[in-house]
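Minutes, project check-in
Item: structure for the 156-residue chain
Input as provided by the requester:
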Amino acid sequence: MTVVADLYAAQPFWIWLAVGVLLLAVESMFSTEWLLWPAVAAGLVAVMTAVGVRLGLPGEVAVFAVLTVIATLLSRRLIQKANPDGVDINDRDSRLIDQRARVVEAFVGGRGRVFVSGAEWSAVIEGGAPEAGPEVGQDVVVNRVSGSLLTVRPAT
């Protein structure tokens, strides 16, 4: 432990850089986005110490904490601006809603198969089984996703 204390006393830049890299490595393993901003804050404190601003360990920890809070709060606002509708781009099911799908297996008794977003899905016609469902090759629109079953309506 004295080695770390001696290194911090001589070169605090390396300690803060190591903290930032360690946080970034953990963030890249778990991809939570919560450790990204503390890693950035540690990097900024490392740069601050490299240019000669020495506040001592308590002062640098305080700057690190303040920068972490500010960066995290600003990132939340930035993410809300980038994704105003709140749809998770990784949620495939929610992205299927209102997509056009092509009928690949005729609907019999209100059930058939459609091709959408690079995959075939089982589907049911919204509102029950019409007398003449969509034919193979016709387009339908996805209304709802329930597990691996799509509810579709005829495209207009």
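Outcome recorded: The helical segments are 2-10, 12-30, 36-50, 56-82, 92-96.
No further action items on this chain.
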